[in-house]
Design brief:
47% of the residues lie in helices and 13% in strands. The chain is an alpha+beta fold. It has one domain. It has a two-stranded antiparallel ribbon with strand order 1-2. The chain has a two-stranded antiparallel sheet with strand order 3-4. Helix 1 crosses helix 3.
């Protein structure tokens, strides 16, 4: 279970804006994916965003993959940060409009 809860201090919006979204072709089947992320790129932003990599004990490749749950948590936090910015801007706009009247 979880313990030691604290408010999150991560600037998720900044991190999300640094995540390069790209298109690519899958090597195995040649299918083109028009929108995607690369685990190696996300790992540079937060090492916990990438799972696996290297080789298994039997010598097979342990393909690196994206931790989609953590990625979702970044997205949720970024949306919350954007929402707070919008709220602040709306209050500022209303104040400026009030001053103009």
């Amino acid at each position: 279970m979880k313990k030691n809860f604290e408010d999150c201090e991560v600037n998720a919006l900044d991190a999300v804006c640094k995540m390069p979204v790209c298109s690519f072709d899958w090597k195995e089947n040649g299918v083109h994916q028009p929108l995607g992320l690369v685990a190696d790129d996300l790992e540079k932003i937060d090492s916990l965003l990438a799972l696996g990599g290297g080789y298994n004990e039997d010598g097979s490749i342990n393909a690196k993959q994206i931790d989609r749950l953590l990625l979702t948590e970044y997205a949720i936090k970024a949306i919350q940060e954007l929402s707070a910015k919008v709220d602040k801007q709306e209050k500022r706009i209303k104040e400026l409009e009030r001053r103009l009247q």
